[in-house]
Amino acid sequence: MTKPRLIVTRKLPDAVEDRLKAHFAVALNPSDQPFSQERLVAAMQQGDAILPTVSDRIDAQVIEAAGRRRCRIISNFGVGVSNIDLRAAEFAGLPVTNTPGVLTDATADIAILLMLSVTRRAWEMESMLRAGKWTGFAPAMNLGSGLQGKVLGIIGMGRIGQAVAERAYFGFGMKIVYVNRSARDLPQLPTATALGTVDELMELSDVVSLHAPGGGENSHLIGEAQLKLMKPGAFLINTARGDLIDERALTNALVERRIAGAGLDVFAEEPRVPAVLRRLNNVALLPHLGSATLETRTAMGMKAADNLIAFFDGKSPPDLVG
Description:
The protein is of the alpha/beta class. It has helices at 14-23, 37-46, 60-65, 86-91, 104-119, 122-130, 159-172, 198-204, 224-229, 247-255, 275-279, 294-312; strands at residues 5-8, 25-27, 49-51, 73-75, 96-97, 151-155, 175-179, 193-194, 207-210, 235-238, 261-264, 283-285. The chain has two domains: 5-102 and 294-312, NAD(P)-binding Rossmann-like Domain (Rossmann fold); 104-285, 3-Layer(aba) Sandwich (Rossmann fold). Helix 11 (275-279) links the parallel strand 11 and strand 12. Belongs to the D-isomer specific 2-hydroxyacid dehydrogenase family.
């Protein structure tokens, strides 16, 4: 029996690639060079399935340009699917799957890492030390801000948002407020308070952490108006999607010191990070490390494989989007 042809756009953990080889006639990407738009179109034409990552933009133009498309399913490597035009995929009869659940802890850990890094000025102080500018211990110098007892505002109280809230509540005694599209029953967070609007949350919070899906109506969810509502000593953390924030508005707020700082793991036009952001010492920056543990990336790949195997076995993929 001929194996379905699968095209994988990026290098995946070895265990994942070995499993894919066992089930598919798979075209891997050992060089890990990102696919161009033309190469994505070709993949749609040449493979029975494509396994892209969140950095591969599969928009309506790619789907339509594929013409006599061979691809029958898109198994996205990642929870977010804002890189895929879901409406165009649905119109073309292309099912899309993702990899939820397995990257919750790794991403929540990164959110806490960014909170600590920016509030305690860790990156700024490490840079000073590495440059040989540290002159020794001084009681009133290099002071950061503690998280204990502060208000943490969570925008998007899904799996990751809840995991961040639990770490903050039990680890630092932070007070939790949140905004979510639907009501949440949170017995593990008995004092967490649901708020009606993002604006209300921005006004109340000492730290705001974003965990909402990107794209659509959430694009620039945090813009100039919302940033103006933040306390001068507040911090903004984003481990979700870069397009949730108006990057120019945030940069201006940081440059003008209208907010205390930010911690960012995602950006509007990855891998491009504005030079101004890279120069600021009141922002902690990471290169999209939210799910970057071997265990998590392997689990994500195995979920992507599960979805593909189920589909070609004539079953419903377990993580079908929409």
